[in-house]
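Q&A log
Question type: sequence-to-structure
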Amino acid sequence: MAEIYQEKPVQIVVNGRATITLMTHAEDPKHLVIGSLYTEKVVSSYDDIESILMEDTQASVVTKNPYAILLSRKTVLAGCGGASSFLDSGTLGRVVCSITPSKAVVETALQSVKTSPWFTACLFMEQGEKCFEAEDISSQNVIDQIIGYGLEQKINFAETFLVLKGNCVVETMRKIVIAKIPLVKITGAITEVAKETANAAGVTLL
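Response status: OK
Response body:
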């Protein structure tokens, strides 16, 4: 019998207005919420967030700017491109890399990341120090979790590399580029447009 995973909706309410509903496997979706707000351009840094209140299937967020531009309400389904954000790789900017991890460090990091029936990702420092690992039902979700953690912890993404176990679509790569993560090791397949987006932004695929 196939392994059963739990997924639940998490509605993100910003300044009293429902903005996004995400489906997730994460027990504590706080980092997913932070990362999603950042990659959807609702906030430009963690410091833009006044407070986050997590209540079962709802995350109530108050921003320091009460007039922050909000998104139209939508549902993002795992692995589904239909609700993805509009992509213009030319507006995402260039990614700067400040590290050169060795092949041995990258390989050791890869082996340390959990293998899941779904998706896992982990953020590492140059010498292979593990920052944060995430598992979820879509590659977009795990990247948003990684980004949310990094923003909260004030991590300089230019000094990190990412391991993604699973396939990579363009929406996932868009999030990686927005966060300015310079080096990415992907174990699964990558779509052509996702690879083009990485190349255009200067993200190196290890």
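Response note: Residues 71-87 have pLDDT under 50 and may be disordered.
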